Amino acid sequence: MDYDGYQGLQVERSGRVLTVTLNRPEALNAIDATLHEELSRVFTDIDRDDEAGVVVLTGAGKAFCAGGDLKWMANLHGQPAAFSEVMRNDRRIQTSLLDLEKPIIARVPGPAIGLGASLALFCDFVYATPRASFADPHVSVGLVAGDGGALIWPQLIGYARARRYLLTGDAIRGKEAAEIGLITEAVEPEDLDATVDAMAQRMLTGATHAIRLTKSAINSGLKQLATSVIDKAAGFEFISQTMEDHRIALEAFAAKEEPKFIGR
């Protein structure tokens, strides 16, 4: 399998370990149109890659992913056809992650925000530094959490805790995220690579078919739930994208001010 055509994603092979890196370090790996489209198909490509046994998903530099690029999001406001395609790509990202039977390990050196948080939390193992932050702040920009957060957060930490973070957009640090079960483990920065590598090798040397089919069985319940949650959340996000509150938030963040929502 050849990944040379990818631009926003850097795909590297080391034996049977495939490392996929969100490669916009100058923007904390914020997701723009190119990166978003590539994420919608990379996991399907990996599914067909017989030489890849384990996937490591990470971000270049000190961040995992800062969420959607605000300039890209601003350009989408008031463009229903373009935003509809974004919603379709969100669905492709989520379903392809759930469908991929090969183990996926998230290496989170820093912030994992919005879709970035969803990308990490959909992985089978999530290793983050103690001060890495996880947040789904869609509400902070006047949007519904439509790219996976409404599905995965409640399943990992329960509905009460998920509401605490999804309805406020507040962040949680890696140490606390591990303590409440949102992620697998918080690991000191100097130990992060070794920890990820160790689990990757353990997955590679284990019973491949048993591991993959067990993952598939675990994800079968999530996939059933995703059928109803993802479509509804995406539809609600589409509606919220047309609202005045979303425009207000984008303009406020561009001006480095706090948004003053008007509730419509």
Question: Would you kindly provide a written description of the structure presented here, covering whatever features stand out?
Answer:
It is a single chain. By secondary structure, the protein is of the alpha/beta class. It has a single domain (1-190, 207-264), classed as 2-enoyl-CoA Hydratase, Chain A, domain 1 (Alpha-Beta Complex), CATH 3.90.226.10. The chain is 50% helix and 14% strand. The chain contains ten helices and nine strands. The protein has helices at residues 33-47, 70-76, 80-99, 115-121, 149-157, 159-166, 174-179, 192-205, 208-241, 244-254, and strands at residues 9-14, 17-22, 54-59, 104-108, 112-113, 125-128, 133-135, 172-173, 185-186. A six-stranded mixed sheet has the order 1-2-3-4-6-9, sandwiched between helices. Strands 5-7-8 form a three-stranded mixed sheet. Helix 2 (70-76) packs antiparallel against helix 10, helix 5 crosses helix 6 (159-166) and helix 5 (149-157) crosses helix 9 (208-241). The longest helix is centred in the C-terminal third of the chain and has 34 residues, at 208-241. The protein starts with 8 loop residues before the first strand and ends in a 10-residue tail after the last helix.
Compact overview of the structure:
The protein has helices at 33-47, 70-76, 80-99, 115-121, 149-157, 159-166, 174-179, 192-205, 208-241, 244-254; strands spanning 9-14, 17-22, 54-59, 104-108, 112-113, 125-128, 133-135, 172-173, 185-186. By secondary structure, it is an alpha/beta fold.
